[in-house]
Design brief:
110 residues; mainly alpha
Length: 110
């Protein structure tokens, strides 16, 4: 016999309220999807999910305040986009890739 799971309606209401808040704070998320947006997400996911056999290890020291900010951002991603585990290393890779994309010269522009 299968066990019946009860719906946690309080959690459903909280999740819906969170989605409404996100839509108010980020109206760009409620617009029609664009090709550039999709490509950006694909790039970020590919960067995060890169084949680990090709990854090189790097060790660095960070101030506690910066680590706290990094962990807070990872926690926010876990709540806003459940699914990926959003480990600290994943978040560092994603943020580093975004920062480099923004600072590198655009291809085709001279």
């Amino acid at each position: 016999m299968t066990k019946v799971r009860r719906v946690d309606w309080a959690a459903v209401r909280a999740a819906r309220a969170n989605l409404r808040r996100l839509a108010r704070e980020h109206p760009e998320l409620t617009t029609k999807p664009s090709e550039a947006n999709r490509r950006g997400w694909e790039h970020d996911l590919e960067t995060m999910m890169a084949d680990e056999t090709n990854d090189k290890q790097m060790v660095l020291r960070l101030p506690s305040a910066l680590l706290d900010r990094l962990d807070a951002y990872a926690e926010r991603l876990r709540h806003e986009m459940p699914g990926p585990s959003w480990k600290r290393s994943d978040v560092v890779r994603m943020l580093l890739a975004r920062a480099l994309d923004e600072t590198e010269p655009k291809k085709g522009k001279r």
